[in-house]
Design goal:
The protein has about 350 residues and is an alpha/beta fold. The chain has helices spanning about 1-25, 55-60, 85-90, 110-120, 140-150, 165-185, 205-210, 225-230, 255-270, 275-290, 305-320, 330-355, and strands spanning about 40-45, 70-75, 95-100, 125-130, 135, 155, 200, 235-240, 245-250. The chain is built from twelve helices and nine strands. The radius of gyration is 21 Å and the shape is globular.
């Protein structure tokens, strides 16, 4: 009887939490008081991106925004390929685009390159993306709306392009599940994570929290740990859900590259605020307990119920909400990818605590 009560409580908590996630995401953002276009500086740190940089530049040229209202600053972080030369040629004839080679970095790795670019920015608002990304044409418009409403930090959705490879399916599904949790938390006034591929802030707010000065625990964290400092300072944070503010990128092509990318992100999560680590710890513990519950079915057949219930709820949640994050999975894919996703979390955590991070 006690086992059954525990199972019912766990299942009820999981069901209610998933409902909370869904309703928080479906809740419409408030409309800003002003539609005034803001002046934005877009900063890109690029290292060995000769295959990608021209595609990013072309997408930024095509943005549906007054060209006098935005500048693009590309920082070449000591690339050993032709990134600088290709980018320099691509921005010819576009006076609002600039490229520099980094020097005298204050911070290591990507943070140093970004800080170098932010210091050069002439506009009061900063947007960051990566060299292998493609923002949608109305990207700046939707960030402008949020900043007009008075937010200090704003982040948007960053889907991967989908293909049929196993690495891509895993990366896309993980991105979807993580985004569901991340954006729900933001809507519930508990932001803890953002992606630097689609991230913006007031330059004055960035300076107020001393920029990246308090985020040097890891080489990564130019997004999550910066957001952590904003939350600690009680700054206003918003998340954009509109698909016209998506920033797409390609997933990693090999398992080695995938795990290296996840290593950086998971290692950063070790330095989240305590309340966020408790929240994530409880959530993932509940998920894993329900996933492995069938192991105990020999003790009581009721232990099969949490796994079955979790599978149904997970599938329903993903199928209902996935389009809002730019994905399309079939039912059978959701079922097996959800199980794989939970197992990968364990592997990523072990990988993060046992290995060192590098910036390319």
């Amino acid at each position: 009887m006690i086992f059954l009560i525990i199972i019912l409580i766990a299942v009820s908590i999981y069901f209610l939490f998933n409902l909370t996630l869904i309703f928080s995401i479906l809740k419409k953002n408030k409309n800003p008081d002003s539609e005034k276009s803001i002046s934005v500086s877009i900063i890109i740190a690029a290292k060995n991106e000769e295959q990608n940089i021209i595609h990013l530049i072309n997408s930024l040229i095509e943005l549906s925004y007054n060209r006098e209202k935005y500048e693009v600053i590309i920082i070449d972080d000591n690339s050993s390929d032709q990134t600088f030369e290709i980018a320099l040629k691509a921005i010819e004839g576009h006076p609002n685009f600039q490229i520099y080679k980094v020097h005298d970095k204050i911070f290591p790795a990507k943070k140093g390159a970004l800080a170098f670019g932010i210091n050069l920015a002439s506009n009061p608002y900063i947007l960051i993306t990566d060299a292998d990304c493609k923002p949608q044409k109305n990207w700046l418009y939707y960030f402008s709306k949020e900043f007009n409403y008075g937010y200090d930090f704003v982040f948007g959705i960053t889907p991967f392009y989908q293909d049929k490879s196993s690495v891509n399916k895993t990366a896309c599904f993980e991105n979807l599940r993580n985004s569901l949790l991340t954006f729900s938390a933001a809507q519930l006034k508990m932001p803890y994570c953002a992606s630097a591929r689609n991230f913006g802030f007031k330059k004055s707010s960035f300076k107020m929290i001393k920029g990246y000065f308090n985020t040097v625990e890891t080489l990564s964290g130019d997004d999550d740990l910066l957001l952590r400092e904003a939350v600690k300072s009680h700054l206003k944070v918003s998340a954009i859900f509109n698909y016209e503010a998506f920033v797409y990128s390609a997933s990693k092509k090999t398992w080695k590259e995938y795990f290296r990318q996840r290593l950086r992100h998971t290692k950063t999560s070790i330095y989240y605020l305590t309340r966020h680590k408790i929240f994530l710890g409880l959530w993932h513990t509940l998920n894993l307990a329900m996933l492995f519950s069938p192991i105990l079915y020999m003790i009581n057949i009721s232990y099969l119920f949490p796994f079955i219930f979790k599978t149904i709820i997970d599938a329903g949640t993903v199928l209902f909400i996935q389009k809002k994050f730019g994905y399309r999975f079939k039912l059978w894919e959701v079922i097996y990818l959800q199980i794989f996703y939970e197992l990968i979390l364990i592997l990523n955590f072990v990988n993060a605590v046992s290995r060192k991070d590098t910036w390319k």
